Write a sequence for this structure.
């Protein structure tokens, strides 16, 4: 193997030659498979295409994966038709390349567009139609749609309907729904996947299947188990939920000298048990006061009702808050979407259609579940550690309500009754480079390790959409490797996900660093490639692409 690699280095010294011949083979297969005679110049982007860098960058949402050393795909496929998706799956398999599926590109570890093996990207942004049936109070939503586009489309049809999903409008439906996304209506309506009633996917053989065609096990798996282990999600059918004409938001803050500790301590028991119409997110951040770092705790709220009712409710449940009507803002549901997304009062809902491409910070996120309230002493100890670290923050998202009523096994997302709130650890920075990345991820990792005594154990749970590579990594695709992160994300549902995977993709074509493994150990990569594609020519192309990838794309 090694002499061959050296040979290839000299044969293709950092040129596009190897990826060009891969592209020729792919194009031939793709044209045949999709029975297309149309121009494919806006569907297939080889590295030599002038648009390749901008297409690649358009949905990079984490600057950590926007560097010259980030591995790049050999081809980007941006399907316009469902048959293009089928062709992309079949032809990637034939050529022995990995296929990374990208919808909104918000994966915190860039798994939808980065791989350390030769790969293609299937970018779903063109498949984003949204069709709403008000009579049935349902909608079909293309995987490439953003949450902002979905909220906007619902608002155009009705001022008293909404959908429970994430608060960041540029998040993609494909990754968010398949991973089990949540937002500020989860105490009333559960997760997005609790309101999904049908789906359309392309399986490993390129077949297009709806719920009936795929069967209940696979339909279960793609509602929280992550789509990318099982196939390509084309669209989900969702049930819209009712929202009142008037909702209420407020923000309340306390610093340490304003008894932030009491505030957070009390929040822990109120937020997960209060009325289901009330969602109170808690942010714990560091601020600088008189040149000293201190902790500020802020509550951000959505109440599905008017200010009068909210004030009465919190006078009863959280009197220490001292909430008054003048602290509250009444608005329509769509205005609350904009408020939660940090847009200024008065911004038009049209901004929800803005895909805001090609801009991102450096991010690292981690997660935990808190199952018993942390004592005041514990919180005070935690504030000291946070001030020492100086940068990472926490987001506390209360559960309870509807989340307690849905069985842990109903969908793959198992963190239901018994979890008071989910913790997100967050650190965001703007200096490029590996050293800054090491420094900042180290800070957030230390905060995560300080929390060990306060959070769920055996397993220590994690929220799958908050992808964190430190939860474990699959190198060979084995069951044993997959179990390490699988148990944290899916607890008792992991085994059923493995069963579904074994049934629908036993050769493990749909794989990534944290995918669901099939039950039997998959064969090593090279023998898998030769089994799929046989020809020595393909293996050569593969190795050549591998060599070039690691050397030649410093200019992107
Ligand atoms: C700024 C920001 C805010 C966020 N806010 C929230 C929030 O409020 N609530 C919440 O729950 N989560 C939130 N998240 C996490 C988010 O839900 C996940 O990152 C989600 O996976 C993003 O979906 P995507 O389509 O944008 O991502 P992508 O990066 O495109 O995909 C994520 C994963 O899903 C796979 N995938 C994508 N599309 C498909 C498809 N069509 N078929 C099969 N597999 C597919 C990818 O291969 C990858 O493994 C946030 C993330 C960011 C960066
Ligand atoms: C074209 O596709 C058909 C089936 O879809 C297959 O049998 C045939 O081998 C393909 N031909 C080429 C040249 O790939
Ligand atoms: C903080 O708590 C103390 C006693 O618990 C109380 O006397 C004081 O008024 C509180 N301060 C604020 C700003 O709420
Ligand atoms: C938004 O601003 C307008 C005018 O500037 C004001 O009348 C309205 O009350 C504000 N709404 C909220 C919710 O603050
Ligand atoms: C990626 O880097 C380029 C410059 O190299 C920059 O213009 C672009 O805004 C960056 N995009 C993201 C998503 O960070
Ligand atoms: C990383 O941390 C080290 C040690 O604290 C420090 O010397 C260095 O300047 C930091 N580098 C960056 C880029 O933050």
């Amino acid at each position: 193997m090694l002499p061959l690699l050296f040979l290839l280095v000299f044969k293709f010294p950092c040129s596009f030659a190897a990826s060009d011949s891969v592209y020729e083979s792919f194009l031939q297969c793709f044209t045949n498979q999709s029975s297309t005679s149309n121009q494919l110049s806006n569907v297939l982007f080889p590295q030599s295409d002038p648009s390749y860098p901008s297409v690649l960058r358009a949905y990079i949402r984490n600057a950590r994966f926007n560097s010259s050393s980030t591995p790049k795909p050999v081809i980007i496929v941006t399907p316009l038709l469902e048959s293009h998706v089928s062709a992309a799956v079949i032809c990637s398999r034939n050529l022995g390349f990995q296929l990374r599926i990208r919808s909104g590109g918000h994966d915190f570890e860039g798994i939808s567009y980065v791989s350390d093996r030769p790969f293609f990207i299937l970018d779903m942004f063109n498949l984003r139609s949204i069709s709403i049936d008000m009579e049935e109070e349902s909608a079909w939503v293309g995987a490439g749609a953003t949450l902002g586009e979905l909220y906007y489309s619902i608002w155009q049809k009705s001022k008293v309907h909404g959908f429970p999903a994430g608060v960041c409008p540029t998040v993609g439906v494909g990754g968010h729904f398949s991973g089990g996304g949540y937002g500020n209506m989860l105490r009333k309506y559960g997760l997005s996947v609790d309101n999904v009633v049908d789906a359309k996917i392309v399986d490993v053989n390129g077949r297009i299947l709806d719920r009936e065609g795929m069967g209940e096990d696979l339909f279960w798996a793609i509602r929280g188990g992550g789509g990318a282990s099982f196939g390509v999600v084309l669209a989900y059918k969702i049930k819209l939920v009712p929202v009142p004409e008037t909702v209420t938001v407020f923000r309340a803050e306390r610093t340490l000298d304003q008894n932030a500790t009491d505030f957070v301590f009390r929040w822990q028991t109120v937020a997960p048990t209060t009325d289901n119409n009330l969602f109170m997110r808690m942010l714990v951040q560091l601020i600088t006061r008189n040149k000293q770092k201190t902790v500020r705790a802020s509550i951000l709220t959505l109440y599905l009702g008017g200010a009068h009712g909210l004030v009465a409710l919190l006078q009863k449940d959280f009197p220490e808050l001292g909430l008054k009507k003048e602290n509250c803002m009444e608005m329509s549901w769509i205005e609350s979407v904009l408020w939660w997304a940090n847009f200024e009062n008065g911004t038009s809902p049209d901004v929800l259609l803005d895909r805001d491409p090609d801009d991102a910070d450096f991010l690292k996120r981690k997660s935990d579940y808190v199952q018993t309230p942390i004592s005041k002493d514990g919180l005070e100890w935690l504030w000291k550690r946070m001030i020492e670290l100086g940068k990472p923050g926490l987001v506390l998202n209360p559960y309870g309500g509807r989340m307690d009523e849905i069985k842990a096994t109903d969908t793959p997302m198992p963190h239901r009754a018994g979890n008071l709130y989910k913790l997100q650890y967050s650190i965001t920075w703007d200096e490029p480079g590996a050293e800054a990345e090491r420094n900042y991820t180290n800070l957030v990792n230390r905060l995560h390790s300080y929390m060990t005594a306060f959070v769920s154990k055996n397993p220590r749970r994690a929220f799958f959409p908050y992808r964190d590579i430190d939860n474990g990594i699959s190198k060979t695709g084995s069951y044993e490797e997959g179990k390490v992160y699988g148990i944290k994300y899916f607890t008792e549902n992991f085994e059923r996900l493995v069963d579904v995977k074994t049934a629908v993709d036993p050769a493990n074509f749909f794989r990534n660093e944290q995918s669901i493994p099939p039950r039997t150990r998959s064969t090593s990569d090279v023998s898998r490639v030769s089994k799929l594609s046989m020809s020595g020519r393909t293996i050569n192309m593969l190795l050549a692409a591998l060599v070039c990838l690691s050397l030649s794309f410093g200019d992107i």
